Amino acid sequence: MLSYRPRTPPSSSISSDRPLTPPSSSLDGADEHPLNPGKKKDSQGYVPHIFDLVYPSREAARLTTKHIPAIFLQAEAVDSSVLLGNGASFTASLQKIPEGPKTIEVTTHNVGWSMTKSMPATPRPKYVVYKVARVAFKEDGEPFPEYRRALQSVLTEFHALIYPSLYHHANIIDFLGFAWGSNPFSPAHKLPAIVVEYAEHGTLADLLNKNRMLDFRIKHMLCLDVTRGIVALHGAGIVHGDVKAENVLVCSGPNRKYVAKIADFGFSIIEATETAEVWIGGTNPWRAPETKSAIEVKHLNHTDTYSLGLLIWLVCVDGRWPFDYLIPSTVQGAARQAKIEDLKRGDELLAAAIAKGWLMSWLKGKFGSHIDQMLKTASAGIADKQRYSEAELRNILFEKLYAQMCQMTLIKSLDDMFENSLQADPGSRDLDVVLLLLESGAEDSAG
Q1: What is the rounded CA–CA span in Å between residue 33 and residue 41?
Q2: Which residue, of 197, 228, 254, is where some domain finishes?
Q3: pLDDT tier at 198 (50, 70, 90 boundaries)?
Q4: How far apart are the first and last CA of the chain?
Q5: What are the distances in angstroms from CA 278 to CA 30, 160, 241, 413?
Q6: Buried-most residue among 121, 249, 348, 355 (CB within 10 A)?
Q7: What pTM was computed for the model?
Q8: Which InterPro entries match (predicted)?
Q9: Sheet containing 82-86: order of strands
């Protein structure tokens, strides 16, 4: 029997960039736990336990097709890895895996003879990421009450990563197996650590911030990746609940430099475990307007679609917040957040998105200095010949640039995508239409 007694009393809160948990978690009140069928709720509701993670980890360890040497699944390797960060539910760290042999010798023995042949070795990842639960446990294996939600987040993430249709999906972060790491609150005790692939390019937010001149064809494919990942989650009965650029990781693909993969399922909701209405988590200002109240289960997936619409918009403007083009910079803090919510409650945000005034503002901010420099070297003669002032010529150049931009495959489809994602009415959103629009232009963008 495992025993978990923290050496020091656990803190009632954990430092994290994650938003606060809503009143009802995704597994509270479930009739049957999704990772442990047959485990019924008691009168106080489902209470997670350390063995809810330990038992399934044994089965999941057989799923991975990439070879990680056993030594890198031990606590010493996890504990000596490089810290990437602490979240509300996990501590994430990075470990480099040494290159292995290209081939292995396999010997077959039979009565009176044996045969040895060379076979290609199972590929090893160059790096792996360990995710250890940040949960303090009681002596009986139950988490302290303030950590129940964190353990539920861990279990939900585990469920999403090993769900059959998601495990092999190109746009869901790869699950590579289980290791054992020290409990952050009691280092003498070990916990299963989820092992996932390393995203060489960081999050989608990182990529956009570092590459302000990212080609629109690449942006188009990244948006398609994220949409395909969300469609796959919904097909598995899972609502992500916290779609944002920071929860999308960007890896290198076999045929593309950048492939977006959805990660971080700590606020995800398994629809089959819910009844009636649900409070959903998420991060402002990514959240759909209806998440301020409890939501009917049938409308939960529409919250992801709304957040996706904002994400596509953000990708188009190089990671800048679209609201920066709609709200004066002098409006800050609580007043700014209130204005954002006002825009989202009606369809003002949708109208502003479709009007595309933001596109001209973005172009002027992005290319203004280039056009000014060009005018300095050429405008004198052009202004005399064409009888345009420098200001008029500048406006003409931006209008031409705007017209060219509107012919980009991704930009041409934006109005319809926004119509099917940023509607204030959840029932008017249609993720399948957004997917179809992105796929219809994927060939041009991939070329």
Answers
A1: 8
A2: 197
A3: very high
A4: 58
A5: 12, 19, 11, 33
A6: 249
A7: 0.82
A8: Kinase-like_dom_sf (IPR011009), Prot_kinase_dom (IPR000719), Ser/Thr_kinase_AS (IPR008271), Ser/Thr_Kinases-Pseudokinases (IPR051681)
A9: 82-86, 90-96, 127-133, 186-197, 175-183
